[in-house]
Design a protein that fits this description.
The complex is a heterodimer. Chain A is of the alpha/beta class. Chain A is 39% helix and 31% strand. Chain A is built from 4 helices and 5 strands, in the order E-E-H-E-H-E-H-E-H. Classes of the chains: A alpha/beta, B alpha+beta.
Chain lengths: 119, 177
């Protein structure tokens, strides 16, 4: 998996490309921790190019959610599809994350979310 | 697919490897058997997923169900790597896949300390916290899972996925949630 970080407006977007599994999820975890501790007002994870998400990837996202509460960072996901969307729903976690269809909607709505991910 | 450990079989400490055994002789009619052995390196989980997904589709599972079965194996292997082997990447994992006309049986073997079967429990989904979902996904995506208590070389987790369904049976995807 490749992880790239960019800034758009007042948000930090973490682009993930590939499989998020036991091997690669620490890369995403490192990026989340770094950006949230750096004081980003909002962190969005772009999942549109994630082809596979397992429980370790989900654990990383939940960890990011918990960290966002500590750092008062607005936190959300967008672009979920296929396996990534279905496993998050299977774990009934779609209700705890702020989830947006695409980047445009995420950037538009993230300022209105609570600073811990929930809508 | 065949790498280090070829021929004599991989040994612990041999570095990252994946080896594949296809057995045709001495196998009962109607059964196809494949065995893949990997080092306990998380980088090789994608090899297991690809292999299981391929075999499952060839056996007749729909693409989504084949992906889900591959995820069940990935989660089981991840559990072994993290918990049984303590994230040591120098140990060995073996997956044997037996394709019967009506089902797939997948045995995941490790050489770690014996796992108590009652620890193989899915956690409460209302408890939102990092971790603990792997067993839940395994149970969602297979029809049966159990530890083979007769296996003496470590742990052998057996996953079973049915291939044939009668009209009116719930589909694997309907089993979720």
């Amino acid at each position: 998996m490749k992880v790239q970080v960019r800034s758009v407006d007042n948000a930090t977007i973490i682009d993930c490309v590939g499989d998020v599994d036991l091997y690669s999820s620490p890369n995403l975890r490192d990026a989340l921790i770094k950006e949230m501790h750096a004081g980003a007002p909002a962190v969005l994870v772009n999942m549109s190019e994630v082809s596979y998400l397992d429980s370790s990837g989900i654990a990383t996202l939940v960890e990011g959610l918990q960290l966002s509460r500590q750092t008062k960072t607005r936190f959300g996901l967008f672009g979920l599809r296929g396996n990534a969307r279905s496993v998050l729903e299977l774990a009934r976690l779609q209700r705890v994350f702020a989830i947006f269809e695409d980047e445009q909607e995420a950037l538009q709505k993230i300022p209105a979310t609570q600073p811990f991910g929930g809508l | 697919m065949r790498g280090r450990g070829q021929g004599k079989g991989p040994a612990a400490g041999a570095g990252r490897f994946a080896s594949l055994l296809l057995r045709t002789s001495g196998v009962p009619a109607g059964l196809r058997l494949m065995r893949i052995t990997i080092s306990s390196d998380p980088r090789l989980l994608q090899v297991l997923r690809a292999m299981v997904g391929y075999i499952a589709q060839r056996a007749g599972l729909a693409a989504t169900d084949a992906e889900n079965l591959a995820m069940a194996v990935d989660e089981a292997a991840s559990n072994v790597i993290r918990h049984t082997y303590g994230s040591c990447s120098e140990a060995t994992l073996a997956l044997e896949i037996r394709t019967y006309p009506d089902r797939l049986e997948l045995d995941l073997e490790d050489s770690g300390p014996r796992v108590q079967p009652d620890t193989f429990q899915a956690r409460d989904l209302e408890d939102v916290r990092p971790g603990g979902l792997g067993t839940y996904f395994i149970k969602c995506f297979v029809d049966a899972c159990s530890y083979d208590q007769s296996f003496s070389g470590g742990n052998r987790l057996r996953l079973v996925k049915h291939l044939l369904r009668k009209v009116g049976d719930e589909s694997p995807s309907q089993k979720r949630g």
